[in-house]
Amino acid sequence: MKNPTKSSQHLTTVILATGIPPHFLKTTSRLLLVFGLIFGQNSHAFAQDLWQLYQASKQHNDILASQQYDHFANKINEDLAKGDLLPQIGLQGSIKHNQFYPKNNNIPNSNATTSQFGLGLHQALFRADKWATLEKAKIASGINDLQLLKQQQELTEQVIRAYLGVLQTQALTESLNAEYDAIKAQNDMMQARLQQGIVARVDTEETEARLQNVRALLANNDVAILNAKQQLALLTGVAIDDIDPLILPINTDLVAEKSLDNYLIATQQQNFDLLLAQQQVALAKKNQDLLKSHLYPKVDLVANIAWQDTNHQSLRNNNGINYGIGIEMELPFYTGGRTTKGLQQGAYQTESAISKLKFVYQNTLTQTSKAYLNLMGHKTTIIAQQIAVDSNAKVNKATQTGYDVGVRSMVDTLLAQRQYYATRRQLINASFDYLNAYVDLQKATGNLNDNTVKTLNNLLTKPK
Does the keyword Transmembrane apply (predicted)? Predict the structure, then answer.
């Protein structure tokens, strides 16, 4: 098993290069060790790619497990409503002892013990309220299913974004390390020339200042890596080892151009927020039906069979089996205004659900359009940034050559170098902006699922 605290190996560099208190960084490193020990007990191996981590999250994420148990519990409500429409059969029994003390002393005291035992049946014949309750429970069960699917989608989104967060911070660190090595080599050369009296002190101060700045950026990025890995470990329940870096440039053809209409149609059919809002309207309307049912008569079939026994001499003729069957009806005339007020309340709740549905409908379409346009925009940015990286690489090399032959100053060299590495980081950020926009689009259309994870995993994983 690999050391889960490997990512903290630059701690000394971090402490020296930034103003962050050393005890804070050491505490952060210890936290990463604790996460590694805790989550390492739940996994026999370190998952290195997005798909493995995603599968681990479905097994070890306690929040998802809690939500699944809540789903199972709420699912039973439909069975409970069905049970109210089925025959209700129960045992009935009683035993009663009577003792009589007459005022007339000439009359002897008497007592009797009567026992009854039997079966009772209660069957709903015409119960609009119970049927409405069942229909309402069915709609609520559908909402319950959608909520679980939405919660699973949220976990998928969290794992993907946490994984991308680790990759992005690693990629930025790799770029900063390359810049640090280049500036350090330049600084070492300048220090040697200073000792020889070839360059002035001001030239070395420029390189030293830039070197310190990159050290500070590296320090902050090391902390960001620790935080990103801890978040990913929290979601997946496994310790996070080194993840293979992102290879640039990435594939920017995940979504076809001029396909916005298709995504808008998918949103209307599959977006979980929209589906839930539609079901909430149906639930509110069915609740109105339930409230109206209180105006209707309630008709039930009742029946029982009972065995009676008494030890009193004069009542023994009543011993035997008693059969009873009948119809019970209840028709409310006045309930203190509760039914009328309940109907008014239900009407308001229905209008509220309809208004929310209208907003959710517009919002989901807006989010889909926004995600799609962002995706296309980031794709264009990636192409432009790749061209800028290639161009700045040539400028950086030419400026360095110019400095070596004495036609460019150290300031020119540092500026060209800084611009080159800045465009590299901009390309990295644009690439991750594209991937996050793709996640946004999949979420908006209700397609953020296993297939999305597989697509991203294939894109991010190095070919074997």
Answer: yes
Whether 158 and 210 share a structural domain: yes
139 Cα distance to chain centroid: 23
Q: How many CB atoms lie within 10 A of CB 272?
A: 20
SS3 78: helix
To the question of pTM greater than 0.85 for the whole model, the response is no
What total number of domains does the chain contain?
2
- Comparing CA positions, the residue from 173, 232, 48, 107 lying closest to residue 424 is 173
Query: Do 121 and 259 fall within a single domain?
Result: no
Structure tokens, 132? 């409405």
Q: Shortest CA distance to 424 belongs to which of 96, 182, 126?
A: 182
Which CATH number is 316's domain given? 2.20.200.10
CB 245 within 8 A of CB 171: yes
In a domain, 217, yes or no: yes
- Domain assignment present for 415: yes
Return the structure tokens found at 8: 């903290």
140-176 tens-digit pLDDT: 999 999 999 999 999 999 999 999 999 999 999 999 9
Owning domain of residue 417? 6-73+136-283+340-460
**Beta pairing, strands 320-330 & 88-100:** unpaired
